[in-house]
Amino acid sequence: xxxxxxxxxxxxxxxTLGRAAKKVENVLEEMEKIFQEIEALKISDSLxxxxxxxxxxxxxxxxxxxxxxxxxxxxxxxLVTREALGLYNHNWVEVIYSLPKRLNPFNxxx
Length: 110
Hints:
Elements: H1 4-43, H2 50-84, H3 91-96
Helix pairs in contact: 1-2
């Protein structure tokens, strides 16, 4: 039989893990949004050409990479939180919250 205290502790653990995971999710979603913006700029027919569009792309690449560093920190916090709660197998966490690689600055030759 689960006591009221045990029930409250289990609820608090779940909420704590949920908050830690949500932080990682939010940053990864923002990274994906920026990645899509970069891809759209690469193929856009906008009035921006040459150095101007490359500069815009590279600004987004910098932001993407900064968010990646933030995601690494939140990912680490998630793992630490899990371990503090006695959860040591992180295999599914690594699959669900895998961090994409850094992006290199865009160069245009042509």
